[in-house]
Structures are given as C-alpha cells and as structure tokens.
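Supplementary Note 2. Why include the ligand at all?

Several targets in our set were suspected to adopt different conformations when bound, so apo predictions alone were not considered sufficient. For every target with a known small-molecule partner we therefore ran a joint prediction. The input for nicotinamide-adenine-dinucleotide is given below.
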Amino acid sequence: MKLKGRTAIITGGSGGIGNAIAKRLAADGANIAIVDLVNAQAAAAELTGAGIRAIGLTADVASEADAAAAVEQTVATLGGIDILVNNAAMTAPPRPFEEIGVADWRRMMEVNTLGPYLMCRAVSPHLRAQKYGRIINIASDTVHLGVPYMLHYVSSKGALIAFTRALAREFGKDGVNVNGIAPGFTLSERIAKQQDRVELFRREQFKALAIQRDEFPEDLAGIASFLASEDCAFMTGQTVVVDGGYAMV
Ligand SMILES: NC(=O)c1ccc[n+]([C@@H]2O[C@H](COP(=O)([O-])OP(=O)(O)OC[C@H]3O[C@@H](n4cnc5c(N)ncnc54)[C@H](O)[C@@H]3O)[C@@H](O)[C@H]2O)c1
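The joint prediction is reproduced in token form.
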C-alpha cells in the first residue's frame, strides 16, 4: 500500500493501458480519478465496487476548460491531487505522411501534446503548494524506432518525451518528479481487436524483441507504480522504454 493516502488522475483510464495503470495504483492504495472522453463513470464504478475511492469524469484533455474542471473536481471530491498519469492519446491508421492533412495533424497534437500540457498546468498549483507530486507521461517506443506511416503520432510522442525532460527541470525544486513510459506494441482492447495487425507484428517484428511475446497493458503497471511512488525520489526527466527489449536506448 505504498500509495495509501495519495490521489491519482489517470487520463484515458477507461480502458487499455490507462485502465491497467489505474487498477495497479488503486491496488497500491491510491484514490483514483478516471478522466476520459468515454466510459469514465463505468471504469470508476468498477473500482468503487472493489472498495476503492474513485470517481469518473467525462472530459476532453485537449479542452482547456475540461482539463481545469477535471482537476478541480478531483481535488473537491477526493481531497487533493498527488499523481497525474497523462495516458489519453489518439492514434490514426497508417498512411504516407503526404496524406495526413493539416486538420488531422493539428488534432493529433492537440490531444497528445496540448492535452498533457493542460493537465500539468491544472495540477501545478496543487503540487507546488504541497511540494510533492508525480507526473507520468505515456509516450511510445515508436519515437526511438522511427516507425513510418504515422508521422503525426510519432512526432507527438517525441514531443512528449522532450516535454517530460524540460518540465522535470521546471518542477525539480518543488518535489514534483516528471517521468515517462514508452510502451511497445501493446494488446490493449483497441489493438487486440485488429487481428491482422497483431499477426503482422508477430510475424515481422517479434524477432527483433529480446523477449519474444505479446505485450499487455499489465506489463506497464509495475513501472507506473514505481514512478508514482516515493521510491523514485531522485529520478526525473526520464522516459523508460517497456517493450520487451525492442528499442534499446
Ligand atoms: N497500445 C499500444 O500499442 C501503444 C504503444 C505505445 C504507446 N501507447 C500509448 O499508450 C497510451 C494508451 O494506449 P492504449 O492502447 O491503451 O489506448 P486506448 O485507445 O485503448 O485508450 C486510450 C484512452 O484515451 C481516451 N482518450 C482519447 N482521446 C481522449 C481525449 N481527447 N480526452 C480524454 N480521453 C481521451 C480514449 O477514450 C481511451 O479510453 C496512449 O498514450 C498510447 O499512445 C500505446
């Protein structure tokens, strides 16, 4: 129960990796706010049913008003905020970069980079005032691998790794540590449904992994638990790759 008494917001926590992280932080003792475009209340109800203090908030992280309201509601209902997991993100079907289009590029950046910024800005006064906080940004190993045909997605995740480093320096004196996790190809419900893509990955990429098996959302939970805790007191600005040893950085 190393997070007992702490409160965590997990954006995009209704399903997939965010939900696995929410469940792990809850098992570690944290109160949980699930912030998502969809199914936030249902995901929170699953936690409260298991005896966890949890709330679900419907919000678009790319909206300034939604991000601010989500943090204020969390503080008002759960009594504070200590941990922010910026997990919500969008992806897009693979296509050559010339076909992405300006509107798609802008929306990708809004959700995947402006969203984390707005959430960090909203928690900042609370974390600075209490001189304690943990921020975890979910990036992607595609940044290190140079994966093609998703240039706006990969660029947004590269920006998030740079954001993690620079923000860590701004927060360093305030006891707020900012770190990231870069998952590999992970069988969240969204991905697992795409059987062709899963089979293609197994056939063509498995040989490049040191640990040659599928990656599951639960594979990201242990590192999130560590980064959310007091154990990572002297670690900040880092993004940990968790992908079975595909990208080694
Ligand atoms: N699954 C993978 O293979 C993989 C690989 C590398 C990185 N990641 C990253 O891990 C994170 C989670 O991935 P996942 O596969 O579990 O995704 P997912 O699509 O299963 O879950 C994402 C969640 O974010 C929510 N969301 C999307 N846009 C939102 C917005 N604007 N505001 C609030 N909520 C929003 C969705 O409703 C969804 O519940 C993402 O940041 C993703 O980029 C995933």
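Strands lie at 7-11, 31-36, 54-58, 83-86, 133-138, 176-183, 239-242. The chain has nine helices and seven strands. Comparable summaries for the other entries are listed in the accompanying table.
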